[in-house]
Amino acid sequence: MGCCEIIQHHYSTIYLNVSKPLVPVARDGRGTVKPINDLDLPILMAPRGFCDPSENSQNPSELVVLIKSCVRCRKDRYWTRETLMQPHLWSDFRVRFVFVTGIPSVNYTGNIHFEGVSVNHRSHGNEKQDYVSTKGELLSEANQFGDMLIGDFEDHYFSLTLKQTFIFRWISAFCAHESQLFLFLDHDYTVIPTNLIRFVRGLPAEILPELSFGIPGQNHLVVRPQQKSNNRWAISEDEFPWDYYPAYFGGHSYVKGINVVTDLAIASAFVHPLRVEDAYMGILRYKLQIQTYVVRKFVHRVQSAEELQSTIIGNSWYIHKFFNWKIGQIIQ
């Protein structure tokens, strides 16, 4: 299919109570079905200078990049500001960047009990008990740079689904006039600017609002809890009773048009959440009958400068070895 390839996956069981006809009804405010997951997600800090519905943008962005950051990922954010976000890399391409995070966890130990299973996982210092100072540093950074979206929810590995729902709702409420296209990145992934510009500008304008593609998910088989194992992706039958997930993107990087984002924001209020974020996004897309495409130039690893020539998105560690950010060129 040219730039993209469709993923097909058999998944016959309906997961709770949302379907495509519900979305336009909900957009119009005439819905009669009550939400089951309509959480209050206050915004503590928002980026400055764009995604303001009170201002009708005369020069909308061609792309908004949302980087799923974390409370203590400060070094990653500074690295991104000094590399990917440098204006000279983007020429006349209109792009905006947003780091998204929650707030420090309180009394988080890494041990969490879900329906039918207990899981232990620590990451990025979330178990540290320095709530007041860390939150202060986070808000100070947001004030200094004006490029952060901070939600009033505890930020840790098992709140990724909540974070993604928060992002979708913010975009649908505040960014509909800012851009037709949105790129979602994990904090340890980056892009090759020239390749991304070429790719985005090669897409027909009329299809941008309905686009949905990314890196293919690693495995559709649902991992079940095992004794003497602490697999963070293990899901009990109480959480998800079926053996396979519908087709989904790896959560590392994916692109969505504004109409898709809005539909997902609405649908998330009517579908029971699942803590495996990328699989949950696949469930929402399946329920809304949104086709799932992959772009082979979105990758996890890059092994050579030659391979980087055609890469659009990849893991920062690999790309950094072969790319000179100061001049925006691949190192030969």
TrEMBL record:
Q: Which GO terms describe its molecular function?
A: hexosyltransferase activity
Main enzyme class: transferase
**Entry's Pfam families?**
Galactosyl_T (PF01762)
Recite the UniProt keywords alphabetically: Glycosyltransferase, Golgi apparatus, Membrane, Signal-anchor, Transferase, Transmembrane, Transmembrane helix
Subcellular location per UniProt equals: Golgi apparatus membrane
- Report membrane topology: Single-pass type II membrane protein
Entry's Gene Ontology BP terms: protein O-linked glycosylation
> Does the entry feature the keyword Glycosyltransferase, yes or no?
yes
Q: What is its EC number?
A: 2.4.1.-
Q: Name one GO cellular component term.
A: Golgi membrane
Can you tell me which family this protein belongs to?
Belongs to the glycosyltransferase 31 family.
Note the PANTHER family from the entry. Answer: BETA-1,3-GALACTOSYLTRANSFERASE 6, BETA-1,3-N-ACETYLGLUCOSAMINYLTRANSFERASE
Give the protein's recorded name: Hexosyltransferase
